[in-house]
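[Meeting: bench + compute handoff]

Bench side (C.D.) handed over the final construct sequence. Compute side (W.E.) agreed to return the predicted structure before the next meeting so the bench team could plan truncations. Sequence as handed over:
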Amino acid sequence: MPTPPRAGTLARSLLPSLACLALLAMSPAACRRDPGGPGRTDPITAAPPEFQELYTALDQRLVADLQLATRRWDGRPTPVVFGAELITANGNRGTALLEPTALLGVRTMLDALQRAGVRGVTVSVSYPLLRPDFPNSARYAEFYRQVAVEVKSRGLVLFAKSGPVFPQPEFSPLPVSYAGLTLSRFSQEWRQHVHSVVALMQPDYVTLFNEPSTMSDVVGLRFSVADVRQVVTTALDGLERGRTRVVAGAGTWDDPAYFRMLAELPGLDALDAHVYPVNRDWFVPRLLELGELARANGKGFLVGEAWLNKVGERELGGGVASTPAIFARDVFDFWAPLDQRFLDALVRTAYVTRMEFASLFWTRYLYAYLPYDERTRALPPLQRFQEADRAFLANLLSGTLSPTGARYRELIAQTP
């Protein structure tokens, strides 16, 4: 069996450019689209020849998933909190979060998401930012405390996620290293991190662990099912949760044994699934199974991250699916119909499984895509992301949703 993609590894790393996010708060004009690379909100529908086979395969998979979700749904929306990632507060941005304009950027994005109908946000508080000996840890702590205040003041549900800072300099400017890290030391430091997140932010949800395959790639530890159990039980020990619901999970592409173990673990309130690739049975069929597993064990169910990964079956092995070239496909407008079908299936599955919360990760595509043409096709991944970020930020400021964003607003508006 080919190795599944490390879907979350790059997903949380390819964030909007730091310079443009800083400019967002100071000068909206600074991030407006330039005439050479406008973002589109009216995507084309025909895939170019080089992507036609992949487009067709994903379309067929999504049609089957949507049909399955539709057959299982009784047509009545359930009270799911639908959310989106607050990417301006993502911990991989490092010291950019300490700039004077950082909170203004957070407020701007929160207001825009709320106007789009979103009722909750996920916030990635990265380890080891809050570790006492980490540079500027007290300032990071104060930043996230204020983020929590901003989220709650708007009546939004706050889902605090914990994940590692990525050590590669192209992914995060922070000089972190996990060399010499042992499972025992990691478990204790992770416990301290999670406890700090809950104490600082008092979120509605906090996740103790997710995506074991991604975590293994980043920090260099194995994270077997038994290892994850050790990390989660250590984090639960002495946790003063108050009204915070405590969750843990894995990617839908990870071994289902992780979910089975967590479902039986005392102290967890819900299972948290991340959805990126839809290949094989990793989307609707897996979510239906996980929803039943959660109910059978008296736990809630939610999706903390989701987006359609544009990866083919033959690209799943060898780490190819987690390369920048794969994720750089997302920026193009011809994918929008598939992204919308993915949202349709996700929302219906959320109703069928009676999820408590479901959130999208790639917020930028709720606002803009790039046109696919000879110029944008030739851009290297980093430049594609930079252009996509400029288009995203310009439309965020003007309140202009892409057709995908408009579809998401329409879908979640019916939620009670």
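W.E. noted at the follow-up: Confidence is low (pLDDT under 50) at residues 1-44. C.D. will use this when planning the next construct.
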